[in-house]
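Example record for the data management plan.
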Amino acid sequence: MNTLQKKSLSITVTLVVLAIFCQAALAMTGKEIIDKSQEVTEPDSGTSTVTMLIHGGSKVVEKEFEILSKKYGENGAKVLISFTKPTQIKLLTHMNEGAEDDQWLSLSSGKIKRITASGKDKSFVNSHFTYEDLSSRNDDDYTYELIGSETVNGDDCHKVTAVKKEAGGVYDKAVLYVRKTDYVVMKAELFKKGALYKYLENADVRDISGIKTPFKIVMTMADGSGKTELIVQKVQYNIPLEDNLFNKDALR
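Corresponding structural encoding:
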């Protein structure tokens, strides 16, 4: 997933609905690299259609959803995820500057449930993504250190640790692999209670209207218990989207 005083979109949503073409200087710090990754061109709005494949043992469950997203100011955004297969479930996220994101889940029964801070670690639609994975991050909540370079699927990347300053949330640390050519995050290792918990990989990164967009995103559990793939089928950026699409009433 892309992941962070600017709030970023969630790892998943940023990468599905996410270009700066310069080489990193040798003396750059970890924080400077992460700042560069946050300076990539982002759309003001976007729509995408995504296939979700949930792998668990020998079983694969396929789902499909659509994403609508729209920026509000520099550090705010609203995102609506609507499942079209096999059930009609919706998740609405309001990303708030300097505050916790608001999230509401609409079940196929029509019931609307608010996702509280204590529920952020729960699985989203039985996938290997949690609600926290679908929330934004704040850069200033972490300390960064450049610890080296590493190749990820043939791409030369900066390796940067991001350690949470205060306790809270699902993850206490991440190791980010930021591609040197354009500062796209190609991989993120996520740690829980000091141990590697799972990792996210981005692949098939394409330039869509000047915006770097991974068309394949995979979240894999470190213990080998399963993984979830997101395959982008189509995406459009900077298109008109009415504000009422992102109201809580849109979940009904």
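Summary line stored alongside the record: Helices lie at 11-17, 30-38.
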